[in-house]
Amino acid sequence: MSGTVDTTWLVVAHGSRDPALVAAHDEVCRAVAAKVTDRAVVGPAYLELTDPSIPVAVDTAVAEGATRIVLVPYFLHVGNHTLRDLPQLLHEARQRHPDVELVLAAHLGFDDRLVDLVVDRATAAGTEKGGAA
Predict the structure, then answer these.
(1) Is 81 noted as a catalytic residue in this protein?
(2) Using an 8 Å Cβ cutoff, are 68 and 40 in contact?
(3) Residue 17's Cα: distance from chain center in Å?
């Protein structure tokens, strides 16, 4: 933990055996951290296949002084992970750390900024009439 920041945001991804995908998620976490240095410590956590697991990341944040932890699901849509797995892991973390505020943020879901990104990507791929090739 740095300075007096006592909040940790754990950006939760599925996890992968592919090191490139893990590196990409780590890059997301670093970019988020750069925007909120005065509000939160930011780190990765994974549901499976990759370390740190969510329980380990939570336990580490608590050991480093976090009194508030926000799990931020880096998932586009609702599914078993957002409906079942993450709430269960949050419940278990609350049992282990009853004096820590543990919060589950909403998954990414629908957002006009993502719509714009889809349009940008499709345009860049040349899928619009007269677009780039």
Answers:
(1) no
(2) no
(3) 18
Would you place residue 2 in the very low, low, confident or very high pLDDT band (cuts 50, 70, 90)?
very low
**75 contacts: CB under 8 Å, gap ≥ 6:** 12, 14, 81, 82, 107, 108
Query: Is pLDDT of 19 > 80?
Result: yes
Do 115 and 77 touch, CB atoms closer than 8 A?
no
User: Domain coordinates of the chain in residue numbers?
Assistant: 7-124
Alpha-helix runs per DSSP H in the chain: 19-35, 54-63, 80, 86-96, 112-124
- From 14, 25, 81, 97, the catalytic residue: 14
- CATH of region 7-124, choose from 3.60.21.10, 3.40.190.10, 3.40.50.1400, 3.40.50.80: 3.40.50.1400
Task: Report the sign of the C-alpha dihedral through residues 58, 61, 65, 68, in that order.
Answer: negative
**Distance of alpha carbon 63 from alpha carbon 56, whole angstroms:** 10
What tens digit of pLDDT does each residue of 85-103 get?
999 999 999 999 999 999 9
